[in-house]
Structures
1.
Amino acid sequence: MRHALPSSRPHCEHGLKGERYSLSFTTNGSSASLDRFRILAAATDEQLARVKIEVNGYALRWEELDEDITVPGIVAGRFELPPK
């Protein structure tokens, strides 16, 4: 299942890609793995699936994990971990 929110600001699509959730940004076509964030890298697929898109597509929120990431932050390359 894929979700997208239209916006003139950077925003993302998210959904299963293979066996893990992925993010795809519509402003510049770049993508990022959730494994680049410590809490999300340790999460199960079921936990990752419970993501909420907030602030009109500006942020992603995992309530159960108490984790938030912003789309502009990811587009700017602000990751916690190096690529695998």
2.
Amino acid sequence: MTRREQIDLHLDSFRKLEDNWDGCHAPAISELVIETTRDYIRFLSNFFGFPEHIVPNFNGGINLYWADESFEVSVGQYGTSIDVDWSDEEFAVNWIQAQKGLQAILEVPGA
């Protein structure tokens, strides 16, 4: 079984968590959070590899931790919107700007 398949199974297991799964009133993890997390992992794994740890959090979200990187990503749902937080906001901003710059270079005709 590949690491991606293992992660998919692990994320699917979060569907079984019901309200109060931690005994401290944590909400169940929504389908939207699970699928958004899956999408983020697929995208970020192209640059950073797969996260070392994927854990549910007490807010009904999912935290992703990379062993060899200096950041973590938390995906949560607040009302009808998804919120994605990076532990190192400066890293996230710089990385996103670099990706936009790379995209702009790739879109230049004849480059």
3.
Amino acid sequence: MKLFGRAALPPADAGKAALKDAAGEAASYLIGLDDQPGSALLAASVRDVLIRIENVCAITGLSVPTIYRLMAKGIFPRPLKITASARAWKLSEITAWVESRERGGVS
């Protein structure tokens, strides 16, 4: 599965470092610096990136209704109000939520 058409999500057995690398690539893509010289350095220096619901769905693999159900239960990060009608999530909060999930064991 590809994230934003470029960066692949890490496999289920990848460590936290792989997830952080994927988050860095996603941040670079989201701020429009993909394939630009020095983009990795600039993306690493950006404190946080706000992402919209379609990108949250791509990162988590969850549908929009599932995200809102989890938010209603208080177990998923809430978005920030960026305009009167627009909402966005901090990429760092979404990646932290993904890292906090338990891996399912093989039965």
4.
Amino acid sequence: MSCVSQVRQFEAAAAAAPADADLQVALGVLHNLSRNFDGAEAAFRNALALRPGDYSLWNKLGAQPLPALETFVQTVVSYASLH
């Protein structure tokens, strides 16, 4: 099974269960591995909407490559505002 078909399966599962943060995280990781950084960022943001206090998700979001430097700064500011 190719990575593309796995991503599609996870996208379908995430669409069917939008309140499942773990599916969003897995989808973000798959997008990241396939170098679809915009898709990874979107999935991690969806997961964060469900679990805003999860530091590991903030780390995943902040670890996206440039031009995600802006995303990193937003991540640090957003996480700091929670505490």
